[in-house]
Amino acid sequence: MKQEKKRRVYLDHNATTPLHPEVKKALREAMEVFGNPSSLHEFGRQARALVEKSRETVASFIGACPGEIVFVGSGSEANNAVINLFSCQGFPSCEVPTMKAHRKEIVTTKIEHPCVLESAACLQEKGTTVKYIGVDKYGKVDIPQLEKALTDNTGLVSVMFANNEIGTIQDIKEISKIVRGRGALFHTDAVQAVGKIPIDVEELGVDYLSFSAHKIYGPKGVGALYIRSGAPFCPFIRGGHQEKGRRAGTENTLGIFGLGKAVEMRKKEMAGESRRLSMFKKHLKNCIEKNIPNIQFNGHPIDSLPGTLNLSFGGAEGEAILLYLDTQGICVSTGSACASGSLDPSHVLMATGIPQERAHGSIRISMGRDTTKQDIDYAAEKLIQVIKRVRQISTISTKAKHG
């Protein structure tokens, strides 16, 4: 008897996304362009043309000028480059009138990506003052606390645009206005926001903005950093003239071209996809609420990414839920993919005030361009079954311990 093929439903798009079909096609066509973009001969000029075409596409997508875009190896590299400005001798640059040499404090939040938190902690060990701002129960930045933390010594503030675990979107425009009003520089990690919600760097008023290709159906190993014209910057990777001296190393021509094509497709598809995923998210929430008791939805109910749903289940472990769902062909996450392997509860959920036990019983569902209504219905059906089973096992285990 022929075995029925297992259904696969990928609901972990915040961790990474599959290549867009048009990106695959573009990459295959561009593979013949192997020249070094810095070479002056024809092969080099062909490669340079691909890089600059992508730079223009990326810049246009976020309302920047091409010269304000630096291509990097990942969103994490972009974030590290900005945070580590404070390890550069002579930073902040005296070319910026609002900056003064003594501004050596960093302000960030408790729910940032580990690449920001760990970079800040490393500088803190070397003597840099770092202040961590709290958030409310929805993951929104505590604005009064932020205003209180800002002083004449504050050099840089870094706030994630949209949280990778709970999907909460910050009011970056308001925060930027407050920060720059105090003469500090402002950076936002927009890895989860670019390509999902409209972004205009001029309207937002940010100095630095990071994002990555593999979150928007592009290739892994390439990202971009927006640096506002006139904002101080020190190269994180040195040893070459590439990217106007801002990032050494031969450009990843193929990856950069893939990023440009992914952005081009986001321009065409983002609005429609956002509406569709918002409907799927609402439908999934309704199904879960009707059929599973003792649950909690995490993140802001309105200001949230359209395809991200984080929820906690009382009496169930997140890892057990994930593994049981995986046996049914459904891929979800217990939080950030960058924190996988850690037994500690999510620092994001803990920062919102969720008890440790609840944090351990949480999963993240993140939808994408290929997600269908049938996928959501199937996931809801299997999730209902899995939670019932996991809770039964948990009850039996508890009774055995006290038996």
Account of the 3D structure:
α2 packs parallel to α8, α3 packs parallel to α4 and α9 packs across α12. β6, α7 and β7 form a beta-alpha-beta unit. The termini are far apart. The chain has 403 residues and is of the alpha/beta class. It folds into two domains: 136 residues, Aspartate Aminotransferase, domain 1; 245 residues, Aspartate Aminotransferase, domain 2 (3-Layer(aba) Sandwich), CATH 3.40.640. The C terminus is likely disordered. A seven-stranded mixed β-sheet has the order 2-8-7-6-5-3-4, sandwiched between helices.
Break the fold down into its secondary structure elements and pairings.
Layout: E1 9-10, H1 21-30, H2 42-61, E2 69-72, H3 75-83, E3 105-109, H4 114-125, E4 129-133, H5 143-149, E5 154-158, H6 172-181, E6 185-189, H7 201-204, E7 208-212, E8 223-227, H8 253-291, E9 295-298, E10 308-313, H9 318-327, E11 330-331, H10 347-351, H11 356-360, E12 362-366, H12 373-402
Parallel strand pairs: 1-11, 3-4, 3-5, 5-6, 6-7
Antiparallel strand pairs: 2-8, 7-8, 9-10, 10-12
Helix pairs in contact: 1-8, 2-8, 3-4, 8-12, 9-12
